[in-house]
Amino acid sequence: MPLLLHVQNLTGGYHADHPVIHDINLTVNSGEIVGLIGLNGAGKSTILKHVLGLLDPLAGEIRVGGLTAQEDPVQFRSRIAYIPETPKLYAELTLREHLELTAMVWQLDSEAYKNRSERLLELFRMSDVLDRFPNSFSKGMQQKVMILCAFLVEPALFIVDEPFVGLDPLAIRSLLDLLLEMKSQGSAILLSTHILGMAESYCDRFVLVNSGEVALHGKLDDMRRQAGHPHDTLDELFVRVARGEL
Ligand SMILES: Nc1ncnc2c1ncn2[C@@H]1O[C@H](COP(=O)(O)OP(=O)(O)OP(=O)(O)O)[C@@H](O)[C@H]1O
Question: What residues does the ABC transporter domain cover (predicted)?
């Protein structure tokens, strides 16, 4: 499996004199879902912001398909679609215009746009609100706009930050099915979530961060071995790390 995302010795944060993540190493291969998990404030979103190129590393390096954001910001960014924790929408654009703008920026051809958008709108039951403005949408519907835009692009790398909050069970199922579909088509997916049962079922590997550092990583069995608790669930390992037992 080709290496898609390579984060090497990343130290970073919001102020040069106050790093909040330290010496982070993680990889995501093509065709793989990696779960990024940790307590509130552990540093997950900060890692994701660095991967997206929204923050500059204080030390270390991030490569997507072999390229850093500094070498070629446009190419770097074009390989990534991001589903943020909180929907970020344009109040003055309808759902249709959000989709059209996304297609334009990512230079989708009209056939791919038509096929993908029709399927996604139907899957997430949003066809009827195509010409409405998102500020009239519920929170879950707003989250769906972000999801539709990301899956429209079908990028090499998906960055997904706590996407399940506010979604109804049908939408959660559709999102998980789509992530599995993208994975089988060769996309790499880095998924941050607090829903550990879901992470355990869907992720191939994990990176468990605690206080800005990687505490455990690998497949569930690797982490059990690192922790010395061969029968733990992901949830039990998480609690041990959070309590400072490991
Ligand atoms: N915009 C910001 N400016 C300064 N510090 C920040 C900012 N955002 C987050 N932090 C700090 O960075 C640290 C890591 O926060 P981060 O948002 O990465 O955690 P998280 O693991 O994503 O948490 P959560 O599960 O609550 O989303 C925390 O100490 C937080 O206070």
Answer: 5-236
